[in-house]
Amino acid sequence: MTLSSLWQPFTLGGVELPHRLALAPMTRNRANPDGTPGDRAATYYGQRASLGLIITEGTQPSADGQGYPNTPGIYAPEHVEGWRKVADAVHAGGGLLFIQLMHAGRMSHPDNTPHQRQPVAPSAVSAIQDIATAAGPQKTPVPRELSPEDIETTIADFRHAAASAIAAGADGVEIHGANGYLLHQFLSPNSNHRTDSYGGSVENRSRFVFEVARAVADEIGADRVGIRLSPAMPLGGIDEGGAVSVREQYLHLVGELASLNLAYLHLHHVGNDELLRTLRQLWPTAVLVVRDGRTREQIADDIDAGLADIAPLGRFALANPDVVERLRTEAPLNEMDPATIYGGGNAGYIDYPVLARA
Ligand SMILES: Cc1cc2nc3c(=O)[nH]c(=O)nc-3n(C[C@H](O)[C@H](O)[C@H](O)COP(=O)(O)O)c2cc1C
Questions:
Q1: Do residues 279 and 254 make contact, with C-beta atoms less than 8 angstroms apart?
Q2: Which of the ends of the chain has fewer CB neighbours closer than 10 A, N or C?
Q3: High-pLDDT (> 90) share of the chain, %
Q4: 150-167, pLDDT tens digit by residue?
Q5: Which of 27, 44, 334 to mutate to test the pocket of ligand 1 (most atoms within 8 A of CB)?
Q6: Which position among 68, 75, 181, 352 bears the catalytic label?
Q7: Which ligand 1 atom sits nearest the alpha carbon of residue 315?
Q8: Where along the chain do its domains lie?
Q9: CA distances from 72 to 22, 63, 334 (A)
């Protein structure tokens, strides 16, 4: 299988990208205790700027939104100053920076947030998952159900975070609607038991995601906003029902989101290519597709099949700051070190070697 389709330029939200790769969002748990990205974050993302579109690790839009220890925020003035250094480093390397706005919802623990409050969610239903905390893995508690007023505040938090990202010099934001976090918790019938206009039917369960996307697009412009979804992804105790309910949910949601003309739809895809093809046909702009466990030879497959425009890379890019050059020149790839993925210092963060220059 050839990777040649990766080397075609692509215009995203009016900006030309040199190729079809991107950096997939990856949590690294190395922010300062106040949620400011550390100076090493600028080095880490700057080293990877040749990936073109740089999507950051999940970044909380509010104190409530934090799920894990030492993840960065984008809601306080000091966060904006920290992200500005990252934006400058990525721009110096010719990349575009999209900050991923991630509200963890029930996938959190009071020990992991600055205010140590009970996590919030659409309904008071625990994910029943082990979550990493400073004291070791703990069970996710039963969350507090968001009131209608809390929902409005949360949407306003996303709006404020998006404005803060732009103030920091980012080119856009990616709304995290995937992988079992707050937005996905609204979509799934096993985590959303609400009886108001945010729960029950497919239309109601889609409402929160749509309102967040609409508010963020209104705040910073639709061409600066992407959204990540993961139909049927079981992470975080999510069960969206069988293929029929998943299809119904995402046809409706993606159909609604399509009307906003966002910069891109990013699918963390598990299975069902027929659904992927249908969602692509519904979507008016760029589609990014990531699948777990792709081999190097499979990276361009979804582009070749007409299912995607861009193939973001996670683990290969984590371990290879120059992954673009390595793929282009068919050079070997560094292996990722599992011990240094989450948290820690420079090791496994900014010290992965680049190819030696001839
Ligand atoms: C260390 C690590 C952290 C991740 N953190 C996030 C995250 O913060 N937000 C998100 O949407 N996905 C996250 N993911 C999922 C990746 O974006 C990607 O979808 C997944 O790793 C599959 O791609 P890959 O096989 O190229 O790594 C993470 C993956 C890894 C390996």
A1: yes
A2: C
A3: 97
A4: 999 999 999 999 999 999
A5: 27
A6: 181
A7: 27
A8: 4-340
A9: 21, 10, 27
Residue type at 185?
Answer: Q
Q: No. of H helices and E strands in the chain?
A: 10, 14
Q: Torsion-angle region of residue 44: left (phi > 0), alpha (psi -120 to 50) or beta?
A: alpha
Q: Tell me the C-alpha to C-alpha distance, in Å, between residue 343 and each of 72, 101, 134, 224.
A: 12, 19, 11, 29
Integer-rounded Cα radius of gyration of the chain:
19
Q: Which residues lie across from 144 on neighbouring strands?
A: 120
Q: 107, 181 in Cβ contact below 8 A? A: yes
Rounded Cα gap, residues 165 and 253, in angstroms: 25
Q: How much is the pLDDT for 142? A: 98
Cα separation of 333 and 287, whole Å? Answer: 26
Fold (CATH) for 4-340: TIM Barrel (3.20.20)
1 has a pLDDT exceeding 70: no
Q: pLDDT of 300-356, one tens digit each? A: 999 999 999 999 999 999 999 999 999 999 999 999 999 999 999 999 999 999 998
Q: Tell me, what's the pLDDT at 82? A: 98
Q: What residues are in contact with ligand 1 under a 6 Å CB criterion? A: 24-27, 57-58, 100, 102, 176, 178-179, 228, 268, 290, 292-294, 313-316, 341
Position of tokens 């990531």? 290
Which of 53, 99, 57, 108 lies closest to 75 in space, CA to CA? 99
15 CA distance to ligand 1 centroid (A)?
24
User: What's at 217, amino acid-wise?
Assistant: A
Residues comprising the chain, all counted: 358
Does residue 181 carry a catalytic annotation?
A: yes
Q: Determine the residue type at 47.
A: Q
Are the CB atoms for 350 and 44 separated by under 8 Å?
A: yes
